[in-house]
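$ run holo --ligand "zinc ion" --emit tokens
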Amino acid sequence: MRFSDVIGLAPVKEHLQNALRRDNISHAYLFEGEAGTGKKMLARTFAQSIQCTGKAQGESEPCGTCRACIQVQNGTHPDVKEITSERLTVIGVEDVRKQVVEDAFLMPYAGTRKVYVIPEAHKLSFAAQNALLKTLEEPPEYVVILLLTENAAAFLPTVLSRVVMLPFQPVADDLIRRYLMEEQKVTDYAAALAVSFARGNVGRALQLVKSDVFPTRLKRVIALFSEIDALRIHQVNERLEGVLEVPEEALLPPGEGKETAEEKRRREKKLQRAALFETLEIISALLRDLLVYKATADPKLLIFTGEMSYISKACEALSYEDLGRLFKELEALRQQLHANVNALIALQMFLLQIQERIQYS
Ligand SMILES: [Zn+2]
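-- output --
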């Protein structure tokens, strides 16, 4: 991986590449960005360039072919360490002590620097952060620590004051679209759809085009909406369960860490909530398309250009007033979901409102 292969993130790349060019690398960095924004990828690229023995002085891109580069790519470089934890939700004080604090006293094995990568560093307990603080305060000169996190607010101020903070900003839609079409060979419709739901998050865009969870959910929403006038309440509810379904494989625990029953429950709840909000986003985009199409009759302006037959049918059945009401109901639904009311009931009520307003004939 080269810096130039990473899409977007120009300020972060520039900062790291300048540090490499001037050989002015700090002892600790904090990469902050939501899941899927490329923190791990940039951490690996940075680590690779730090260890690379094939690049010229003043160069920031790793050569990609020297032994060190290959080892970093394979995760086998002796001086690039990724911190692991026995537990899924916490990185404890013992993990940090053994894998960073004590290990940092040992000189680099092959290169001139040692790089420690701590993924999901917001899971560091306060005790673990305090343990890490010793190394952050008086780091051996060869040590570089990369903290990757979704949330910088999870850190002690004493830790934050000793790291270089690099926020990962959303990537421009156009860059993601081009990347999906040119590098991932995705069709323009799938790329446009993924971009409208990814909100500048490349990882999320990739997930949207690579897994069939999203297309399946979208198909089920469209099917539910296009037949809603003919369904009985219990059928609406059954369909809704199908829409919100989280596939078995998505429920499997990530990685190999152990998790308690409570942690498992919380993780599954989080996935169900994500499914719920994805459904809400789909409905919201669909209503937006209905309004746009009703006003312009221009398919080019739509998000769901693949669903034209439903959209034109629904536009005939719904007046502007109906659509206005549905937008209001949707806003109320969104607030209820954020306020943590019973989501299933709130969604059922919303669908009944649609049912009342729609008659496709
Ligand atoms: Zn190299």
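-- notes --
The longest strand covers residues 143-149.
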